[in-house]
Amino acid sequence: MKKKVYSILLYFFVTFLVNQNLLSNEKYQELDRVVAIVEKEVITEIELKIAIDQVLNSQKNKSGSGAQYTELVRANVLDQLIQKSLIEQYAAQYGIQVEQKKVDAFINNIAKKNNLSIEELQKTIERDGIKFGRFIDNIRYELILKQIKSKEISTKINVSDFEIESQLRKNAVLNPDVFSLSHILIQNPSNASINEIDANYKKSMEVYNLLLAKKSFEDLAKEYSDDASAKTGGNIGWKKEKDLPQLFVDELSKISAGQITSPFKSPNGFHILKINEKKGVEKKKVLIKQTKLRHIIIKQNEITPEEEITKRLNRFRNLIIEGSDTFENLAKEYSEDGSAADGGNLGWVSPGTTLPLFESTYDALEINEISKPINTDLGWHILQVTERRENDLTDESIKYAARIQLINQKTELIFKDWIKQLRDQSFIDIRMIQD
Questions:
Q1: Whole-Å CA distances, 207 to 203, 219, 385
Q2: Distance between CA 407 and CA 415 in Å, rounded?
Q3: Alpha helices in 254-393, H assignment, sequence order
Q4: Interval 214-254: pLDDT, tens
Q5: Count H helices, E strands: the chain?
């Protein structure tokens, strides 16, 4: 009898376990069913649910709720997951990869910008309900997407000078320069004599030198300025560039926020301006050190040994140093590249535009000094630095920024067509989605 009871209990216990497993499997299959097939990959209900939850969590404090809104989010999120799958498969097919060190550098940059350690960044992200591994995966995807956009679209886009000028005008309208200014005026009488004008110029220079000595602009304006703003320490408030006299605009273009102009003359007298603050398109001054170079190159071949080439170049070097011959004449006669006709002149070169050995060699030279022979993939050279300068590339930098802005705008427009074409060419099967 006891044996029979044990058999019945065992039967119910096993039945209970089997039923629980069946229920668990059924629940798992329900949650993890395939909602879309994208080429060789699938998107499951669990992936979709996690992505939807993340979007809804990020929208907690924003407008948007109800079943209709949730369905819209579901459709948009599924669309993004399909696009992500297509992009990742395209990258794998064409060998487009992102090195781990680039991902690490990106994460380190995010942490640094937020004044966090990597551990603190991870805790912050996971506190928002996002697994750190998924966060890293998303970064890798964004970097892959950037590479694809660059390879397939950006590098093939041409931007004309007309488009750049048009973009600069558009930027100026959207972000006009607005200045918070202070002003000191040393006013000339209406019928001022040459002596009076000269005296006022000297007075303006005295004030200017006091400002350079770190004296208060406000105090000096109250003491010396003939402008109506003198009572308020010279402060004339915020002024748009278009509302200022062109003479003021020209002088302000030479200085940055916190700086003062040197005294400049108008029919009214002598002015000193200070930019207290500036809004608009920030024009950071870009100065680049450039070097003017010339060289003599002898290319190596199977017939002439290295020893003989270096011996010849050292002989040329000695002739130039002794004054027996000139670099220009020797380059014209013996140098073996296109620069020979111009006495070996390579023009102005900027950092990063020549071979590393070339750059390190000319950086170490004084003006008119001649290097010892150096060997590159192009041949054997001797170099001479003829001039150095600091070139202002601010305008070129602003134009380059506008060019990149246009390329990015065009890239995003073309990418919409590119991804649509990729989707049209791919096998995508969206299954029925049920709550």
A1: 6, 11, 43
A2: 12
A3: 306-322, 327-334, 356-363
A4: 999 999 999 999 999 999 999 999 998 888 999 999 999 88
A5: 14, 11
